[in-house]
From TrEMBL:
It holds the Pfam family TauE. The keyword Thylakoid does not apply. Coiled coil: none annotated. Its main location: membrane. The keyword Translocase does not apply. One of its GO terms (cellular component) is plasma membrane. It is found in: Cell membrane. Belongs to the 4-toluene sulfonate uptake permease (TSUP) (TC 2.A.102) family. The chain crosses the membrane at residues 6-27, 34-54, 90-107, 114-131, 151-175, 187-208, 214-236, 248-270. It is a multi-pass membrane protein. It comes from Phenylobacterium soli. Keywords: Cell membrane, Membrane, Transmembrane, Transmembrane helix, Transport. This is Probable membrane transporter protein.
Amino acid sequence: MTSMNGAFVMSGLNPITIGLLVVILAASAIMSGLSGFGFSAIGALCLTLLPPQLGVPLLMTLSAANQVMSLRQLKADMKPISQWWPEGPAPYLLGGLVGVPVGLAILRSLPTTNLMLVFGGFLVLYAAYSLRRPDAEPVTVKGNWLASSLVGMSGGVIGGFTAFPGAPVVVWSGLRRLPKQESRAIVQPYIFALQVLSIVLLALQHPQTFDKKYWLLVAITVPVVLPCTLFGVRLYRSLSDVNFRRVTFMLLGISGLGLLIKAAGAIGAAHHL
């Protein structure tokens, strides 16, 4: 225990910060295990305790670990890779891989605060509307790989400046009223692939990000995230399709609120300067 406390002190962390991080990430893992997405939406609260250059890669890594655990538990619900095109996640992944570089370019060159306000507001309104009609008629689009690719590309673009790449795919699945197994079979491989791509790009461009403090936090938080993910998956198995959509819409609303708060903070900081 003394050596662990010493490691915290050497890394500039304290037990209170670690305790708060554990609580936030445990809640993130449970909700993501339950819905298949939303880990970063709730986990973004960690950025109030950690600098973004440490918190963002930590969230990416834990989100990827969360997705691996969920995918292993739900292996029977996932389509084999041979069936990923055109009804599975392949078109979304293709679009997402194209969209990520565009999103990163937007992050560097355009006023992302305004974009976050618009997208966050849309998610909040869409979630509020959908919660009132969780069993409404679906959008009648089936077998359209081009539409799926465009949705996936929009997720890659939006993920580049919001860190929530799965939101457009989740919205699209909700509009189509896909059964919960089919929705997760698309959303989870998509989020996992884009998180891994982001981690690889970050490691290539900024290898100094993955320092001793990062690895210490990974070692502390992974043993919390994985069992909480399992608990969330068990809750998911008990949900009907309608209740699953309700949970999905609630998390989309939380994601939108997170973006609005993040954008408001950026605006306040700019005015202060």
